[in-house]
Amino acid sequence: MEKINVALIGVGAIAESTHLVYLQQHKNVTVSAIVDLDIERVKKVAEKNKIKHCFTTIDEMLNTITLDAVIICTPNGTHIPIAKKAAEHGIHVFIEKPIGTDLEEVKEYLKVSKAKNVMTMVGMTHRFRRDVSIVKEYADRNTFGNIYYAKAKLCRRRDTPKGWFTNKDLSGGGAMMDTGVHVLDLAWWLMGQPKVASITGKTISGLGNYQTKYVSSWESQNKRLNGNHIFDVEDFGAAWIRFDNGAVLSLEIAWAMNGEQDEGISIELLGDKGGATLTPLAIYKEEEGTLVKSNPLFETNDAFENEINHFIHCVQTKSTPLIDGDQGYEVLKMLQGIYESSEKQEEIKFKN
Ligand SMILES: NC(=O)c1ccc[n+]([C@@H]2O[C@H](COP(=O)([O-])OP(=O)(O)OC[C@H]3O[C@@H](n4cnc5c(N)ncnc54)[C@H](O)[C@@H]3O)[C@@H](O)[C@H]2O)c1
């Protein structure tokens, strides 16, 4: 198969540790360029990884080289403006989660990308986990029947990041936008992507800039972006989402809280024929009239590697990705519904 030319935009924490590694390992990929605001960093990473071109803006790159695809790993609020420039040049786009922060901006981008036949994939990494794939296969085979309720949560005790993540202008929101997006997407996808009917949500900055001793934190690789110490987002959020098929999703997310911590995304799916939990993975169903719980055995995989390989495969075969731009838009619509409901202190209804 012909090699494809890919550029990585934003070589911060996640891009250097995962995207770049798996792109470099892929036999059908040439990492033609990397782009980052931070000139020193971009030069260093390019040199270390023997990448031919490095730039500080996407415009400079688009005026200099030709590409098949870009992978965008910049702060959330910059995803769509960058993606739009790539799409206008007919370049396929992988956008890290969340797809963007502004629904109208995303809608406009999707119009442009579709007109240019540009494929969009959103980085919902957890969909590529082996245990998640197993639950999805059971769901698709209708093992659970009608899924009428799901409970999804990821609550950490002290895991609030520093830097641009707490600055709403760059992040679009706090815990909901950062980790909630994964949890919401995963539960919604396993439920069969029903259409949202209404949302009641509450987001709170419960602990804010805590001074707790003996806990670690994480931050952006760009020290300049970290410099402002703005904290105008939530560190806790909860929502009750009703879908037009009658199903309900209950969601709880915390970067920080005074309670028991979830070790990973926790999901409970209740159907009229069966159910499932993650994590740990368990399947519940009746066999010969008896209720049975089973724990499928599996080898774990590297979800990031599978995700990158999937994107490259979709570019090469011109196929639709597992999570495309329209699905990314629907997830952002629900996140924005949670924020709107919290602000207005009322239920938000959606017309489908
Ligand atoms: N899928 C996942 O599980 C996962 C995990 C971590 C982060 N992410 C997402 O990846 C993105 C990046 O997160 P991170 O933790 O690597 O952050 P980071 O701040 O460490 O990296 C972002 C990089 O983008 C650069 N940058 C900022 N604005 C830019 C612009 N306009 N043009 C070019 N470069 C620019 C910064 O200099 C920085 O090096 C976020 O959207 C985050 O939500 C996803």
UniProtKB/TrEMBL annotation:
It holds the Pfam family GFO_IDH_MocA. InterPro entries: Gfo/Idh/MocA-like_OxRdtase_C, Gfo/Idh/MocA-like_OxRdtase_N, Gfo/Idh/MocA_Oxidoreductase, NAD(P)-bd_dom_sf. Residues 4-123 form the Gfo/Idh/MocA-like oxidoreductase N-terminal domain. Residues 140-349 form the Gfo/Idh/MocA-like oxidoreductase C-terminal domain. SUPFAM superfamilies: Glyceraldehyde-3-phosphate dehydrogenase-like, C-terminal domain, NAD(P)-binding Rossmann-fold domains. Belongs to the Gfo/Idh/MocA family. This is Gfo/Idh/MocA family protein. It comes from Oceanobacillus longus.
